[in-house]
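thread: overnight batch results

M.L. [08:02]
morning all. the overnight job finished for the chain we discussed friday. pasting input first so we're all looking at the same thing
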Amino acid sequence: MSVEHTAGAGEQVTEATRSVVSEFLAARVAGDTGRLIELFADDVDWQLADNPAVPWIRPRSTGAECAAQFTELMEHTVPEDARASVGTFLVDGADAVLMGRVSGTVRATGRSFEGPFALHLTVEDGRITRHHLYENSLSIAEACTPAV
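M.L. [08:03]
and the structure it wrote out:
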């Protein structure tokens, strides 16, 4: 007797989410802003703790604004010092959560930041509709503030 397993609708959504998030990560690593714009929905639920000391952290809501965050980050940090590692990549239906560590150096001050992060993404109809990032904003703000 043969038992055939067919992926259910929930599994298909989970795999589609995993695929889009993997494309998102590849586009971030490659600096492919055009691809990021394609991956973000027209309207995005963007959440990142507002921080006036950090020029690349600001409210965003459109796909183009969200994709531009990568470009702004690269303008204000030293690219060769940028590090990010993902230790956990969980996907359940339309939601994905990535956890890891991030570090870098702010170009204007020469000061470094480092700490953990968690990123919650939601994918609907093949595009990212939610981007909630939780990170060590204090370390980043301190790195953006010139030493006294």
